Every structure is written in structure tokens, then in C-alpha cells.
Amino acid sequence: MTPADDADGSHARIFVSIASYRDPETAWTVRSALQRARFPRRLVFGICWQYDASVDAERLFSNMPKPLFEGQIRSVSLRHDQACGPQWARYLIQSRLYRDEPFYLQIDSHMRFCHDFDVILIEEFNDARAQSPRPILTTYPPGYTRLGAEGQPEVDTGIAGGMIATRLYPRSFGDDGMLRIVGRAFDVAPSRPVPTPFWAAGFSFSRGDWVRDCPYDPNLRHVFFGEESVMAARIFTSGYDCFAPSRVVCCTKWSRDYRPTFRENPGSQSLTHLSVRRMRFVLEASDGDVDDIGDVGRYGLGRVRTMREYQQVAGVDFRKRSVLGDEPSCEKLSPMPALPPSITNRVLNLVINGV
Question: What digits encode the pLDDT tens for the residues 150-192?
């Protein structure tokens, strides 16, 4: 651990990845994180700003908080008409802004946090690590409705009132052949993180090793749906296990009515089509010629578990585009297929000798 990691007393740095497309809630998201963290100096932000400088600058940046130290808020900026979707933005954050901080928190640009969320995340992570050596905390967080300064009091009140955590479930396949998932609150708050085969791009907390083992694919552009299924499969086959946190640590703004999206730009249909085919290729669900897809290399599946195992655990069939049987249950998902001893020993060694 470096001296910078220990700035708040033996608390490792958390890199916070935020892909923002013309979203005025971004500033309030950063403000919430800094105000609600017990150790705000442990946070480092990487933001991909995609905006129209002629009309967006004031509403995007006027409410941005000042960083607590030089380099706490890193950014890369694109014109809004250069945006290629969230996967491309998150790839830029990983490749240009991330500097091997011990923990990686990926969130949406419209979030509000609970008090001491940074400490709670580490506690939840350690609870999940008791079940798997390579855990990732992920879910669709509960929603908030009020914008700007009014969003934080709404979330504070909801969490104080006993808001229950959520977990991911498969819903159905869309016309594009990609799985749609939903978040549902637990009937009763669990006592520890609960295994889930699914992954949410808008809330994911893990060791930074995840970025090395499952980096974003720069070739997936002008697409929205499919990101989470592909990453979930890559995560699982690389030997990681996803868990729904047992506590609510943040809320998200689900409505898009207040902001534009990258879809306002006329994207390349050929790139969209190729990206979808590339994702289906990774999911071993190709239904046509794949000669122009090429070698996906490090952006493909891992070698620790198989895609067949993943589909059995998740209860979905990507080739047939079907959700199989009942919704996944805790009993069906736990325990996850075991990791080979060589992988387990290597990861445990990192845990013992790392942060």
C-alpha cells in the first residue's frame, strides 16, 4: 500500500468510474460521494464527459465540487456527437484514467450515496470474500426521483426508513437478441451478500484486478443492451463471482426524461450491427457468418469456467434466446462452481499480501 492509499488511516483508494453523457446529475453524484464517504480522500474519480460545449457547460460544471487533493478528479472529454455509447466511454476511463487503485467502483452518472458508503462497501466486499475469493458486488440500486440538491435528502430519508436492498433477475430477451434483467428488492433483508449470476454496469464494486482480467472491449460501439450480459459471462468464466449487497449503499435516477442520451446522435448502423454480432459471438450464440468479427482475444470469455456452466447457473440460453424455468434462487446459485486450486491459491495470496 502506498502512502497515498493510507491518507485516511489504512484505507485503500477507491477509483470511481463515471461515464456521463450530457447529464447535469453528474456533479451532484460526485458531490454526494464526497459528502457521504467516511473517508472522502480515499476516493478518486475518473469521468468521461460527453457533452455539447455550446449549451451544456454551465449546467454540467457549475455544481461540481472542488477536489480535496490534486488529481482526485480525472477526466477525459468528448464532443457529444463523438459519443459511441457507454461501453466505449467506460473503455476510455479504464484505459486512460485508471491508475491501479486497489478498488474499482463503476457507477452511473446519476447516483446518491448513503452515509459511510465507502466503509460499507468494504465490509460487504469482505463478507462476500468469505464466500468467494474473487467477489464483485453488483445490483440495480433503488431509485430516487428528485433532481439536484433535493436528491440527497430524498435518499437519506429512504435509507433511514429501512429501504431494502435489491437483486438482479432475468426478464426476457429483446428483439435485438439481448437479455434484459431487472432489479427486485429482497422480501427480507439478507444478513450477508447474496450470489447472483448477473451483473449491472451502473453499480459494480470489486478489486482493481477485474479491470485487468475483464477489460472493456473498445470494439463495442453504438450499442446499449448487451453490455451487462457479455460482462457477466466474462466475469463468471474468468473465475469471479457476483453478489448482491445485503445493504443499500446508493440510489440511482432511473428516469431519463431530464436528459438526452447518446441515441440522439445518428450512429453507424453497420457498427451497431457488428457490435451486436460480436457480443453474440462472445456469448457463444452466433447465428451467422462471423468471419469479419476477428479474434476477440482478451475481450472474450475466461478460461476458468465455461459458458455452458454460466448458462446453467444463470438459467438462460443465449442461443435460443430463452429464460429457462423459474427465476434463479439463492439455493440454485450457491455454492458457485469451484475455482481450480491454482487460481484459488493465487487469489488468496493476493488477498493476504495485498490490501
Answer: 999 999 999 998 999 999 999 999 888 889 999 999 999 999 9
Please compute, for residue 339, the number of CA atoms within 13 A of its CA located in the half-sphere on the CB side: 21
- 3-state SS string over 311-354? HHHHCEECCCCEECCCCCCHHHHCCCCCCCHHHHHHHHHHHHHC
- Strand, coil or helix: 143: strand
Cell numbers at 202, concatenated: 451502473
**Measured torsion, CA atoms of residues 323, 324, 327, 333, in degrees rounded to the nearest 10:** -110
User: Is pLDDT above 90 for 43?
Assistant: yes
At 354 the pLDDT is 33
Q: How many CB atoms lie within 10 A of CB 285?
A: 18
β-strand partners of 120: none
> What are the beta bridge partners of residue 169?
182
- Average pLDDT value for residue range 275-293: 80
CATH of 14-353, one of 3.90.550.10, 1.10.760.10, 3.40.50.300, 3.40.50.150: 3.90.550.10
End-to-end CA distance of the chain: 7
What integer pLDDT is reported at residue 1 of this predicted model? Answer: 40
Distance of CA 283 to the CA centre of its chain: 19
Confidence check: pLDDT of 350 > 80: no
Report DSSP state, residue 266.
Answer: -
Q: With left for phi above 0 and alpha for psi between -120 and 50, is residue 284 left, alpha or beta?
A: left
- The domain spans of the chain are 14-353
For residue 211, the tally of other CB atoms under 10 A from its CB is 20
Residues sharing a CB contact under 8 Å with residue 81, sequence separation 6 or more, in sequence order = 52, 265
CA distance 237 to 321: 20
- Measured N-to-C along each axis, helices 227-237 and 307-314 cross at an angle, to the nearest 10 degrees, of 120
Reported residue count of the chain is 355
Residue 130 CA from chain centroid, whole number: 21
**Separation CA 219–CA 222 (nearest Å):** 10
pTM, 2 dp: 0.88
**Side chain identity at residue 330, one-letter code:** C
For residue 258, count other CB atoms closer than 10 A to its CB: 12
